[in-house]
Amino acid sequence: MSTYKSDIDSAANLIGSKGSSWNAIDPEYAARMKAQNKFKTGLEIAKYTAAIMRADMERYDNDPSQYTQSLGCWHGFIGQQKMISIKKHFNSTDRRYLYLSGWMVAALRSEFGPLPDQSMHEKTSVSSLIGELYTFLRQADARELGGLFRDLDAARDAGDSAKEAEVQAAIDGHQTHIVPIVADIDAGFGNAEATYLLAKQMIEAGACCIQIENQVSDEKQCGHQDGKVTVPHEDFLAKIRAVRYAFLELGVDDGVIVARTDSLGAGLTKQIAITNEPGDLGDQYNSFLDGDYIDSAADIQNGDVVIKANGKLLKPKRLPSNLFQFRKGTGVDRVVLDCVTSLQNGADLLWIETEKPHVGQIAEMVNKIRETVPNAKLVYNNSPSFNWTLNFRQQVFDAWSEAGKDVSAYERGNLMSVDYDESELAAEADAKIRTFQADAAREAGIFHHLITLPTYHTAALSTDNLAKEYFGDQGMLGYVKNVQRQEIRQSIACVKHQNMAGSDMGDDHKEYFSGEAALKASGKDNTMNQFG
Q1: Residue 342 C-beta-side C-alpha neighbours within 13 Å
Q2: Are 271 and 235 in contact (CB under 8 A)?
Q3: Residue 184 annotated as binding site
Q4: Which range among 219-228, 237-246, 338-347 shows the weakest confidence by mean pLDDT?
Q5: CA-to-CA distance for 483 and 481, rounded, in angstroms?
Q6: Which of 5, 24, 26, 75 is the most exposed place for a label (fewest CB within 10 A)?
Q7: What are the φ and ψ backbone dihedral angles of 96, each rounded to 5 degrees?
Q8: Is 222 known to be catalytic?
Q9: Domain housing 3
């Protein structure tokens, strides 16, 4: 017996046990409402999606072509439409996630208004967005199942048993829109206790995967900006442990932690690490400090700090900002140490923030990490902060030059020019961009590819195109030709915006509650009927 039919029988038995006062309750309607609300709490979602991520991680370990992907979404509606689109085009949500970007929360969700990515926004706005995303995804489930229930009724009314069986099978085999969210907790928004408290809120809202970075909380910067300041490993590990405790406290035993290192682009530290003996973690961190080795107390000026590092007395360079500087050229070694240390102390996945999308550069670091942790794998930011066109055209230019191919027709510094768009070099660069995710998953250990803030850019681009035409000489044709007509022809579900907003579900409920007395919105005069 299907779950749906079993739920009908269970509801019928319960209603029958309550006597005549429940006679107006239809057991099938009760079963439908239960099916349309599969997940009752955020914790149920977190447990369900954590299991999905763990299975996907194991599948990737066995076959790197089975990498996962996500797009950053700054509103529940955007996340919902993304998953509806994925189900429509690919018939499955497998290996497709959502990403929650701290950058977009700061820029779009703060009550202060648009903010830079510096952890100045209200930290509770992060968990609020997780809850909102899952509210919209649950509504997508309810809407889709509601349509199937209507189809089931129509098949019954028509006496079409074959169609009824087909729809029943679709109901029983329905795949939810609920997928894992990789959620950005920035640098933890304070000390480890603050990190723990926010992690709990995020998990309770549904997050099965929390990404945390090794920057100083009160000096946090976007990974693609200057001025990044890292913390000693023990400080970062305390926050990783805080997130793990939050998962365990709430019963999400296989919750996923992504440890992000910004060390490749961060040349500063706020603290000198505590060290107890040569070669320990603090000593390794301090060994990267820039400074001058000294021989006597005469070399120490008022206010100088002196430590023992690499077996000698080191006077670290302290900047006017009271920050300490790392030696140039140590970024890769610091990244490798960060990653190995994080994986050995409770993290599940890594995030290495790089300055360009280069498979070889990423692979170099991952291979060094895998010498110690063989199954190390990454979440990677396919960032809009990269100029992908210029980066890959320059990579092809450099490869051709190294191979002795004639590149005299190209000016390396001007490869972004539209003049090169139809060139052989541009075509090869585009081919490398197209396969970047598969190549990096295979060669550089990237398990999950995401774009942090794509929907920020698509919203701006589509709005610009509409405004240009609607307020220009195209008038209403600017909307009809480029928006509505395309929605109809591409079967975009929200062309029926009343339905997408829940009007049909509301009508169903009115019928459940009021029977023939229900005042419905979907009658013959509803203009949405123009869309078939």
Answers
A1: 33
A2: yes
A3: yes
A4: 219-228
A5: 6
A6: 24
A7: -115, 125
A8: yes
A9: 1-37
Phi, psi of 325 (to 5 degrees): -110, 140
Phi, psi of 345 (to 5 degrees): -130, 35
Q: What is the pLDDT of residues 508-521, one digit of tens each?
A: 898 888 887 767 76
- 269 within 8 A of 230, measured Cβ to Cβ: yes
What's the pLDDT tens digit per position in 165-188? 999 999 999 999 999 999 999 999
Cβ proximity of 417 and 67 under 8 Å: no
Joined tokens for residue 308: 């023992």
Contacting residues for 236 by C-beta, under 8 A, at least 6 apart:
212, 214, 259, 338, 342
The number of folded domains in the chain is 2
Tell me which residue has tokens 């360009």. Answer: 356
Within a domain: residue 375?
Answer: no
Banded model confidence at residue 99, pLDDT cuts 50, 70, 90: very high
Contact 176, 225 (CB under 8 A): no
Residue 176 lies in a domain: no
Closest to 87 measured CA to CA, from 144, 33, 48: 144
For the chain, helix (H) and strand (E) counts, in that order, are: 20, 14
Amino acid making up residue 99? Y
Segment 332-361, tens digit of pLDDT? 999 999 999 999 999 999 999 999 999 999
pTM summary value: 0.93
Position 64 in a domain? no
Question: Which of 73, 209, 222, 339 is flagged as catalytic?
Answer: 222
Q: Are 351 and 213 in contact (CB under 8 A)?
A: yes
Phi, psi of 256 (to 5 degrees): -110, 135
Nearest CA to 106 out of 93, 95, 118 is that of 118
Cα–Cα dist 501/497, whole Å: 6
Q: Please list, residue by residue across 238-274, b when 16 or more beta carbons sit within 10 angstroms of its beta carbon and e when fewer do.
A: bbbbbbbbbbeebebeebbbbbbbbbbbbbbbbbbbe
Distance CA 153, CA 340 (A): 58
- Report in angstroms the alpha-carbon separations of 532 from 26, 145, 488, 498, 526: 30, 19, 10, 13, 11
Reported as a single tens digit per residue, the pLDDT across 471-506 is 999 999 999 999 999 999 999 999 989 898 888 888
Enumerate residues 6+ apart whose C-beta is below 8 A from 57. Answer: 256, 348, 349, 377, 447
Q: Does 484 fall in a domain?
A: yes
As a whole number of angstroms, the distance between CA 392 and CA 436 comes to: 10
Average pLDDT over residues 151-161: 96
Beta-carbon neighbour count of residue 443 at 10 Å? 15
Distance CA 367, CA 378 (A): 12
- Across the beta sheet with 324-325, the strand order is 229-230, 268-269, 324-325
Write the DSSP symbol of residue 273.
P
Highest mean pLDDT, choosing among 108-117, 161-170, 513-522: 161-170
Helix, strand, or coil (residue 268): strand
In the block, tokens 């585009």 appear at 430
How confident is the model over 311-333, as pLDDT tens digits? 888 899 988 888 999 999 999 99
Unique residue bearing structure tokens 């090169």: 420
